[in-house]
Amino acid sequence: MNIEDYKTKLQKFYSNYSYLVSFAVLFIIATAINPRFLTYTNLSTLLKQAAIIGIVALGMNLVIIAGMIDLSVGSMVALTAGLGVLVLNHTGSIFLMLIFSMILGTFLGLFNGLLVTKGRIAAFIVTLATMSAYRSIIVQLGQGGPFSVAREKFDSFRIIAAGETFLIPNLAIIFVLITAAITIVMNQTKFGRYVYAVGSNEHAAKLTGINVDFIKTMTFVITGFLSGISAFLLASRLTSITAPNAGMGFELDAIASVAIGGTAMSGGRGKIAGTFLGAIMLQMINNILVIANIPPFLEGLVKGIIIILAVLFQSKKK
């Protein structure tokens, strides 16, 4: 095998697994900059922070692979979490709150999907509008104030997000299980293959008999469902949802996680494992920024740069 063959294989590997290389580089940098990076406390906190955003990002990944975008995920999380706390306080049942959160999230995602597919409105416009609408609803319902978990349910509810199983944070376990489930769906089912087909070439997908509208709608439904789970976990972690701020910036963090994970922002290509590591890498970057004494107000700038660089890199791989 000559040098050119090795170079071709190396390029192919890097094209398919660039997120692994990025993760390794960031891990080395974070370890070198922060002597406490590998401590249990720091890693546990990092995984907890990555999990809630990461679950949302998994849904965002499906929407982006299908060639669209969802800007409403942060507002969906806020609306679902706030109303979920009301359900918990009224019924006293954590289980009913979970069911409610998943159903409401699914409904909000379905609403987005139907507006895109049946209303024939661009996903960017639809989710930009619902981002504002969902946020306005929960702010109005709470009159700008917080939705706080009742004292009698505080400890039993908080332990869901704060607890650990065999020294592994519950949030990390849930994140891994959901990632595994979405990976199976995308790699082992017709639906997963159809999502990639629609994102690669929607017209060709229609000609092969794929119900494109159904596939698109379902990516929004799954995103809403996962946002509902994320909302439940966020409420458990915070125990008080401030309507104007809850979930704020989740859409940017989710998109950044997907981009860092190597998914093509133009659709048709991407790995679930990449988004899983992308969410963790995003928190590693935040960790590095804190250690480097970068002002927190500049975090948005850094995330914006990351997204631009990731998209530029994806364009170079075509």
Automatic annotation (TrEMBL):
GO terms for molecular function: transmembrane transporter activity. Its main location: membrane. It holds the Pfam family BPD_transp_2. It is found in: Cell membrane. It is a multi-pass membrane protein. Coiled coil: none annotated. The chain crosses the membrane at residues 17-34, 46-65, 71-88, 95-115, 121-138, 159-186, 214-235, 297-313. Keywords: Cell membrane, Membrane, Transmembrane, Transmembrane helix. GO terms for cellular component: plasma membrane. InterPro entries: ABC_transp_permease. The keyword Signal does not apply. It comes from the Bacteria. PANTHER family: ABC TRANSPORTER PERMEASE PROTEIN YPHD-RELATED-RELATED. This is ATPase. It comes from Geosporobacter ferrireducens. The lineage of its organism: Bacteria, Bacillati, Bacillota, Clostridia, Peptostreptococcales.
